[in-house]
Design brief:
It contains 6 helices and 5 strands, in the order αβαβαααβββα. With about 160 residues, it is of the alpha/beta class.
């Protein structure tokens, strides 16, 4: 776990326990780092249900139900795929929240349209519109992945602490 994320995870845990809700993650470029950060907290089994590492396009399709045609049309690093990853996990797991990430951590794999550091995240709660957003992170592979973890946890924490959610 990244040191800056410890407070976020504690706040997430308190909020989810109070709400009697659970979360799952669907991760590509972070390779399970968000799930690892969540489960680093003792007692996380009360609120963390599962994490799926769907690094390949085949895994995104097989485990999360992302249509192959969608990946072909938009690419695996896209808003559409991030949202489908989260919705797929939400549909197949006993959870209330799904957080997904897909991106290009580098140092290779980027393009002019999607440079290294491009990450799409999606946060979905059952029965509500998805929150999908793009981040453009700087730094090496480790830095991009660390910033992605923090961005995802921050968005989740803010959503949980928002009285309207």
């Amino acid at each position: 776990m990244f040191a800056d994320d410890y407070e976020l995870i504690n706040r997430i845990a308190v909020a989810l326990i109070q709400r009697r809700e659970r979360i799952g993650t669907a991760e590509s470029c972070t390779g399970g780092l968000i799930a690892a950060a969540c489960t680093s907290l003792a007692g996380s089994s009360q609120w963390f249900e599962r994490g799926v590492v769907s690094y390949s396009d085949q895994a995104k399709t097989e485990f999360l139900g992302v249509p192959k045609a969608l990946i072909s049309l938009h690419g695996s690093v896209s808003a559409e795929v991030a949202e489908h990853m989260a919705r797929g996990l939400l549909a197949h797991a006993p959870i209330d929240w799904a957080l997904s990430v897909t991106g290009i951590a580098g140092p290779t794999g980027g393009s002019a349209a999607k440079p290294v550091g491009t990450v799409w995240l999606a946060l979905v709660h059952a029965g509500r519109p998805a929150h999908v957003w793009r981040e453009n992170f700087d730094g090496d592979r480790h830095a991009v992945r660390a910033q992605t973890v923090t961005a995802g946890l921050t968005a989740l924490c803010e959503a949980l602490e928002d009285r309207d959610n």
